[in-house]
Write a structure and sequence with these properties.
5-stranded parallel beta sheet; alpha/beta; Chromosomal Replication Initiator Protein Dnaa, Chain: A; 19 helices
């Protein structure tokens, strides 16, 4: 693991995290892929992309918190941010190993829990309604969440919130649960992720505890499930959740869900579930506008015992536009640098410290969003697109993601190839040409699903993906300019 602040405390924290998460997890998800910054107030973990950051946050956050307590003897705030330069340090085949480990994780977790006699842990409910910054991009979602927390199962049931990574979905879901504890202390509720629900179901099946599992979830007054797109390609889990959904809904209780994509854009999700999801309130959270970004930064800055000039806040808001995590990561980096160096927090310091992040922010984050939405649509894991596998579904999804990246970002073919698992630039060119040809001819494409082969024209698929990403549908991909590059690569 790279160390930003070469102190004994950071080195000890590194070693402690490795001990707690285990050597295999540490090697796959931390070594050469993370960067630590430790201050008196927080621990900042830089990651190469959202996929790795989200995985670490969901599976290792508890272990990291324990390591922090042991090393610094107090609780610190833990924040994740993206540093695209870390992607260069990943080994060429590491995404394949990460994918295999992630695919095997539910079964491995169930075996560990059975051996230790434990149950899956619940994510920390840190979100609060009063901490949520409301703007035009999220006002409707906030209003619905507030209404559901005050009067469950009255107006918006089920409530389905969707949008990109890092824009506040989980915050709202956890805020609803915290409001329920205050307003309805007698209510029975549960907050779980899609993966947690799946792991519990697998554990119950293997241990003959299906009845206990069903009683636990079907007797709830409010069921809150995050990352519902995790159910894609899991037929048994979908069937079980469908019965759970029907049981809760039949008794007039509340169901709240969140996903990175609209229900109709989640691949390998049964029609029965989709029809139930869209039967209630489906609301989208868009990327934060300028005023919302300013509000988020000021809210965040108010928690530091540190003066942050308005001009610096405005500079960050103008240059980081994609998600909330990005804004917080930039702010925390400046605060840490100013405290460690003793240099006043000025725009000049911000320009020097954040120049590399700003240079990579727009294309990398947008490409991360593209691969996330595309993989969800085709029922894949984002890591699938980075592997060397060439199945019909993966090849189609990977080519679509490369095409959208070339069309809607400023990244070159070699840059896209490096991001998508160190693919050769000629691979990206050929993939874009294939997708372009399919769009021009309006030929149907086919890919495999658990229900069999699915067939649909590519043009409406691309249009729906662009709409989900809030991208313009016009524009073309310039392939002719790279013909000479492709010819040279074959010499």
């Amino acid at each position: 693991m790279m160390i930003t602040c070469a102190t004994d405390a950071v080195r000890l924290l590194d070693s402690c995290i490795a001990d707690k998460v285990g050597p295999q997890r540490y090697k796959l998800w931390f070594k050469n892929a993370t960067n630590l910054t430790l201050t008196d107030d927080f621990l900042r973990i830089e990651v190469p992309n959202l996929f790795i950051g989200n995985w670490i946050e969901k599976h290792c956050l508890g272990a990291i918190r324990e390591a922090v307590r042991e090393v610094v003897e107090k609780d610190l705030e833990i924040v994740f941010s993206i540093d695209p330069n870390l992607a260069k340090q990943l080994r060429r085949k590491q995404p394949d190993f990460q994918l295999k480990y992630a695919d095997a994780h539910p079964a491995r977790l169930a075996r560990t829990q059975k051996r230790n006699g434990t149950t899956p842990s619940r994510p920390p409910l840190a979100g609060r309604m009063e901490d949520f910054v409301v703007g035009e991009s999220n006002r409707l979602a906030y209003t619905c969440a507030k209404s559901v927390a005050e009067y469950p199962a009255t107006q918006f049931n089920p409530l389905f919130i969707h949008g990109g990574c890092g824009i506040g979905k989980t915050h709202l879901l956890q805020a609803i649960c915290n409001e329920l504890k205050v307003r309805h202390p007698a209510a029975r509720w549960a907050y779980v992720s899609g993966e947690d629900f799946t792991n519990r179901f697998v554990f119950a099946v293997k241990n003959g505890e299906r009845d206990a599992f069903r009683q636990h979830f079907r007797r709830l007054d409010v069921l809150v499930i995050d990352d519902i797109h995790f159910f894609a390609n899991k037929r048994a889990t979908q069937e079980e959740f469908l019965h759970t959904f029907n049981a809760i809904d039949a008794t007039g209780k509340q169901i709240i869900m969140a996903s990175d994509a609209h229900p109709k854009l989640i691949g390998h999700l049964s029609d029965s579930l989709v029809s139930r999801f869209v039967s209630g309130m489906v609301v989208r959270i868009d990327t934060p506008d300028y005023e919302t970004r300013i509000g988020v930064l000021r809210k965040r800055a108010s928690k530091f015992d540190f003066a942050i000039p308005d001009i610096v806040v405005e500079y960050i808001a103008e240059n980081f536009r994609t998600n909330i995590r990005e804004l917080e990561g930039a702010l925390l980096k400046l605060v840490a640098l100013s405290r460690l160096s003793g240099e006043p927090l000025t725009v000049g310091l911000a320009q020097r410290a954040l120049s590399d992040m700003i240079a990579h922010t727009v294309p990398v984050v947008k490409l991360t969003d593209i691969e996330s939405v595309v993989s969800i649509y085709f029922g894949l894991n984002p890591a699938d697109l980075h592997t060397s596998r060439k199945t019909r579904t993966i090849a189609l999804a990977r080519g679509t993601a490369m095409f959208l990246a070339r069309k809607h970002t400023k990244m070159s073919f070699p840059e896209i190839g490096r991001f998508m698992g160190n693919k050769n630039h000629s691979t990206v060119i050929l993939a874009c040409r294939r997708i372009h040809k399919l769009l021009d001819s309006d030929e149907p494409v086919r890919w495999n699903t658990p229900a069999g082969l699915k067939e649909r024209c590519l043009r409406p698929i691309v249009g729906e993906l662009e709409e989900q990403l809030a991208l313009p549908t016009n524009g073309t991909v310039n392939l002719a300019a790279d013909t000479e590059l492709l010819v040279d690569s074959t010499l």
